[in-house]
Amino acid sequence: MNLEGLEMIAVLVVVVLFVKVLEQFGLLEASYDDSVEDELELSAVRHRPEGLEKLEAQTRFSRKELQILYRGFKNECPSGVVNEDTFKDIYSQFFPQGDASTYAHFLFNAFDTDHNGSVSFEDFVMGLSILLRGSVQEKLNWAFNLYDINKDGYITKEEMLDIMKAIYDMMGKCTYPILKEETPRQHVDMFFQKMDKNKDGVVTIDEFIDCCQNDENIMRSMQLFENVI
Amino acid sequence: MAAGVAAWLPLARAAAIGWMPVANCPMPIAPRDHSKRQDELIILNVSGRRFQTWRTTLDRYPDTLLGSSEKEFFYNEETKEYFFDRDPDAFRSVLNFYRTGKLHYPRYECISAYDEELAFFGIIPEIIGDCCYEEYKDRKRENAERLMDDQEENKDSKLPNMNFRETMWRAFENPHTSTMALVFYYVTGFFIAVSVITNVVETVPCGSTPNQKDVPCGERYTVAFFCMDTACVMIFTVEYLLRLFAAPSRYRFMRSVMSIIDVVAILPYYIGLVMTNNEDVSGAFVTLRVFRVFRIFKFSRHSQGLRILGYTLKSCASELGFLLFSLTMAIIIFATVMFYAEKGSSSSKFTSIPASFWYTIVTMTTLGYGDMVPKTIAGKIFGSICSLSGVLVIALPVPVIVSNFSRIYHQNQRADKRRAQKKARLARIRIAKTCSSNAYLQRKRNGLLSELLDLTTSEEEQQHLNKSTSLLESQHHHLLHCLEKTTSLSLSLSLSLSLSLSLAVSQAHEFIDEQMFEQNCVESALQSYPSRSPSLSSQEGFTGTCCSCRSRKSIPLPNSSMSTTHTHTQGLQELSALHIQCAEQQGHSSSRSSLNMQPNEVGRFNCRERQITTAIISIPSPPAPIPEGDGHGPPNPGPSISTTASSNIVKVSAL
């Protein structure tokens, strides 16, 4: 039995080898589908911003300022758009001691106004225009938009907790005094105490703006970054 | 923080507004940017090629030259541009770094030139991008190895104060340093060969005695072979003990491979002496004799190629390991298959799987002895597959090993070539330098000549004197003159010129025998002034030769102003100090006395009146390594004198 069996096996092996050799010479076509479409993957997403005049009209930057901004932007991102990972990398460089990726994610969403997953130059410059040259109302609007993660018009305690934890994460482990587990939560409670007038557990845009306008500290710090560009 | 993302800082700061409503305390005041500079184009003129870029581009990296205020040093007011006298090609990479944030290393650039450029512009090489970093590191390593090679060459050079032990160690490691070492080298080599041949011949059957058939020579001429063996082992033992004594670190020496081989080579003999002719241990004794063949490994000290081979095998250990592993796998597979295939056939030699190992190995290495052959069809089929795959499995790792060997071998060859070329190169450089130094003395002489023989100059001498020297030259000469005045000594022409000439001649030979070389120097120097003063003894040959060389060019100047510079103070400057040091090493007071000539012997323009007989201070250049050896290692460019312990002749190499 073993003789017969082994002979069969031997013959089989020889046949398989033969087939393989033929395949090599292209005489036998192997039946598997080639996905040629992989070759045609889009090499790069390129984005060209709108004209200088249009941007000048839409933002509060001067022509020269826009030129400077665009040059810096295009240098860092030659393809013209920033995707979330790049943005996270860039933002993390400013906070080497902690983990800035969560906050960068929220920030990215705040800049990406059309929610297409990438921040183009228009988004970038619009955001900067609001933050640097906008009125207090607009700035507070922007901040509210940042905190409202699901963009439903209400800031819930969970959303605020996420934001708060992200901010505290940026500080890192080596702080003085040591960051405790409940610090973000306490901070959120304090925030809600201040902001939530009708105590319904959420903060609306009006409550937010009213409250902030009455707070001197916040008003003063809003003017802090006037001359960044 | 990576300065490359400085462009995003405005965004980060602006986004900080998001923290404001959440914060409990007031924020600190922001720094104001007082210099509200408009973004402007600045022009960087690098050796004529103009590069233009925005100021903010350069400001991205404030800790580099271009990004900081350091570039203001290079600002040219008239042309309103920054001028750098550097290589424009290398500057391209530097400027691209500012533009793109990534530093690239161009392949065509020389590694040291590139390093210098980076150092000039204040950029650390570690930020070279990933794409180019490996290449950069490889080239840097290669360069460093080359420099290390050169340095090792210089380490070989003799330090004057080596004690006996160090001399001996050096002699052992590098047999070319002295004749004794060379003799020792050849003697040991000879005895190794003798020992190996003896071991081989011992087993040859030589002649048959009437009562027995062929006996090996070893048993026939026992005494002779024993004596030979003893002699060899004695030599090896002495050599080993000498090496052990001379080794700078005995513990490290004892752990080195060569010393282990030495020990293993001579141990069987001693063990054999100690052991009696017992029956039960004589079997072990015979085994020990096998170790005598290790003596052949001692040849690796004598052969560079063997060492390379050994090093290659060591460095290819992973490939060899892989080869072994894959072969073992294949052997086991095929042996099993063959065993089961041949199980059925009668009178099959494949009695067990381990027995089939032999067949598999012989087949896979395509040896095919034929003592075991498969008889069944299945066995034959599998056997043929086995031999085909054997060829493949062996052929695959071999090129890797070969390429490794070739790389190491070529490296070695290149090192040898570099060493050979270095001597010729340095000789040529030295000749060029002595020409410049001779120009100084020539000028000095001409100056005196014109002073003393003012009106009676001939035409050619006039021309000679009026040979214009460049500003640089005249400044340099002035400097040397100042030094002379400071030290109240003066420079003289040394035998360096003759030395360099003879060097050029002997450069034809790769290997310069030191003794011969010195001999040449002395002879050539001596020939120049055959009528030396007989009072100079042979031990003062050095002073004599120097002086003789000098006196050849002596011009009879009855009242040379130079005589006033003869001061034989003991407060000698470094130049003379070197000479005196040589004199001290010679340990002859008489030589020193020859220097203390009376100052009133001004009649003879003889260098014996001079303190300095050697040094030429040439144009300061970084002290290049000299194969003949550095002397006392003066930090400033000065003459280097090296002494050999064996002879009291001092070689002078002027740098």
Automatic annotation (TrEMBL), chain A:
Gene Ontology MF term list: calcium ion binding; potassium channel activity; potassium channel regulator activity
Subcellular location: Cell membrane; Cytoplasm; Peroxisome
UniProt membrane topology term: Peripheral membrane protein
CDD domains: EFh
Annotated Gene Ontology cellular component terms: peroxisome; voltage-gated potassium channel complex
PROSITE patterns in the cross-refs: EF_HAND_1 (PS00018), EF_HAND_2 (PS50222)
Superkingdom per UniProt: Eukaryota
Keywords tagged on the record: Calcium, Cell membrane, Cytoplasm, Ion channel, Ion transport, Membrane, Metal-binding, Peroxisome, Phosphoprotein, Potassium, Potassium channel, Potassium transport, Repeat, Transport, Voltage-gated channel
Gene Ontology biological-process entries: regulation of potassium ion transmembrane transport
SUPFAM superfamilies the UniProt entry points to: EF-hand (SSF47473)
Domain EF-hand: 99-134, 135-170, 183-218
Pfam family, one: EF-hand_7
Family statement drawn from the similarity comment of this UniProt entry: Belongs to the recoverin family.
Protein's name according to its UniProt entry: Kv channel-interacting protein 4
Taxonomic source organism: Chanos chanos (Milkfish)
UniProtKB/TrEMBL annotation, chain B:
Keywords, in A-Z order: Cell membrane, Cell projection, Ion channel, Ion transport, Membrane, Metal-binding, Phosphoprotein, Potassium, Potassium channel, Potassium transport, Transmembrane, Transmembrane helix, Transport, Voltage-gated channel, Zinc
Membrane topology: Multi-pass membrane protein
SMART domains for the chain: BTB
A Gene Ontology BP annotation from the UniProt entry: potassium ion export across plasma membrane
Signal peptide from the UniProt entry: none
Protein name: Potassium voltage-gated channel subfamily D member 3-like isoform X1
Predominant place of localization: membrane
Chaperone keyword on record: no
Recorded GO MF terms: A-type (transient outward) potassium channel activity; metal ion binding
UniProt xrefs under CDD domains: BTB_POZ_KCND3
Transmembrane feature ranges: 221-242, 254-275, 320-341, 353-369, 381-402
Lineage per the UniProt record: Eukaryota, Metazoa, Chordata, Craniata, Vertebrata
A GO cellular component entry from the record: postsynaptic membrane
BTB domain boundaries: 40-139
Subcellular location: Cell membrane; Cell projection, Dendrite
Gene3D superfamilies: 1.10.287.70, Potassium Channel Kv1.1, Chain A, Voltage-gated potassium channels. Chain C
Region feature (Disordered): 619-647
Cited SUPFAM superfamilies: POZ domain (SSF54695), Voltage-gated potassium channels (SSF81324)
The reaction(s) this protein catalyses: K(+)(in) = K(+)(out)
